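Schema walk-through. Below, the input block comes first and the output block second. Nothing else is stored per chain. Lengths vary across the set, and this one has 110 residues.
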Amino acid sequence: MRHERYTSAADTGSTTTVPQEMTVEEGGRSVGTVVVEPGQTLLEAGAAAGVPMPYSCTVGNCGDCMVRLRSGEVTQNEPNCLTPRQKADGYVLTCVGRPLSKVTLDIADP
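--- output ---
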C-alpha cells in the first residue's frame, strides 16, 4: 500500500505556539473567520472550516493557492513558487503558509 504525504523537509520557518485568527475575504467581502491552530497551515484551517480556499498541489510548487495577505504576518516554506515580485506585492501560499499573528487574506483571483 502506498501513501502520499504532503509535507516538506524544507519547513524551517518560524511558527507560533498559540492559535491565530484568520479572516478570509473575497474581493473585500468576508467569507469566513477561523482559528488556525499551531502547526496548521492557512489552507488546512480554512478547508477544515469549510471556507472556500483555492489550492491544487499543497506543497508550494504550483501557486494555485496564492492569495494576497491584507494584514498580519505569515511564514512559509522556502523555496516555493512565488516570485520576488509576488512576495513584495504581499502574496502568500496558503498550503505552506502559517500565521504568526492575526491575519486577513483575500482569495479573489490575483
